[in-house]
């Protein structure tokens, strides 16, 4: 039974891969009201729900439907390093065994998170160590947004205000524009000011090595 359960979980889709519009469309196809997507987003990104059963303003049938079709995992924190200025670097292990890094940077009255978009990198910039391991693959939308969601959850665990994480810089592992489609979808979730993560556009920076097209 446990083997069957693990196999089922492995093949279920991470709901964090969906933008709110895509989730609304999926709900309509399944016979549910599209506005429920906003409620689900609030539970995932603002209330930090660990499971669909926690989403108590959704009906039991809808919670069951979500549980049957999606999972809601967190990234696996394999290692954390803290510098003298309390900057914290997280090494996350992904489901396929690859690793990525995120960096939580303390500012005067807020935090900034440095986010990765790829496993490795193909740009081979001389000032950067990431390319030495070669390029492995692009991150999914869920793997990008989970870095932000989990960083805020980390602040909650430290009894800090999660919305103090107010700035995002896409300057971690990888070239963001080389993972363009997933980058754009993750930005829609991060900058969804109604139901998503509520980051202001002026507080989100995408750094590029220069992919002109």
Model description:
By secondary structure, this protein is α/β, with parallel strands linked by helices. The protein contains 6 helices and 10 strands. The strands form 3 sheets. A 6-stranded mixed sheet has the order 3-4-5-6-9-10, with helices on one face. A two-stranded parallel sheet has the order 1-2. The protein is globular, with a radius of gyration of 18 Å. The termini are far apart.
Secondary structure layout:
Elements: H1 2-11, E1 13-14, H2 20-29, H3 36-46, H4 60-69, E2 70-71, E3 76-82, E4 88-93, E5 99-106, E6 111-114, E7 118-119, E8 137-138, H5 141-157, E9 165-170, H6 180-190, E10 204-206
Parallel strand pairs: 1-2, 6-9, 9-10
Antiparallel strand pairs: 3-4, 4-5, 5-6, 7-8
Helix pairs in contact: 2-3, 5-6
Rg computed from alpha carbons, rounded to a whole number of angstroms: 18 Å
Poorly predicted tracts of residues: 3-9
Shape: globular
Proportion of residues in helical segments: 25-40%
Task: Give the tally of β-strands.
Answer: 10
Order of helices and strands: HEHHHEEEEEEEHEHE
Instruction: Describe the main β-sheet briefly.
Output: 6 strands, mixed
Distance between the termini: 50 Å
Strand content: 15-25%
Number of helices: 6
Major β-sheet strand ordering: 3-4-5-6-9-10
Determine the mean pLDDT.
92
Structural class: alpha/beta
């Amino acid at each position: 039974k446990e083997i069957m359960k693990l196999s089922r979980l492995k093949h279920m889709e991470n709901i964090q891969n969906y933008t709110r519009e895509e989730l609304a469309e999926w709900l309509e196809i399944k016979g549910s009201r599209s506005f429920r997507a906003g409620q689900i987003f609030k539970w995932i990104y603002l209330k930090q729900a660990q499971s669909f059963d926690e989403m108590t303003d959704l009906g039991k049938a809808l919670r069951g439907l979500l549980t049957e079709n999606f999972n809601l995992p967190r990234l696996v924190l394999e290692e954390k390093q803290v510098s003298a200025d309390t900057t914290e670097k997280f090494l996350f292990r992904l489901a396929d065994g690859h690793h990525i890094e995120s960096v939580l940077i303390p500012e005067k009255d807020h935090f900034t998170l440095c986010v990765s978009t790829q496993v490795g990198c193909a740009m081979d910039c001389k000032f950067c160590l990431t390319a030495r391991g070669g390029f492995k693959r692009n991150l999914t939308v869920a793997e990008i947004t989970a870095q932000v969601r989990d960083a805020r959850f980390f602040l909650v665990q430290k009894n800090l205000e999660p919305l103090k994480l107010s700035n995002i810089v896409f300057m971690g592992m990888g070239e963001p524009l080389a993972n363009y489609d997933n980058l754009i979808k993750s930005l829609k979730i991060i900058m969804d000011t109604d139901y998503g993560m509520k980051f202001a556009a002026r507080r989100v920076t995408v750094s590029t090595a220069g992919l002109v097209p």
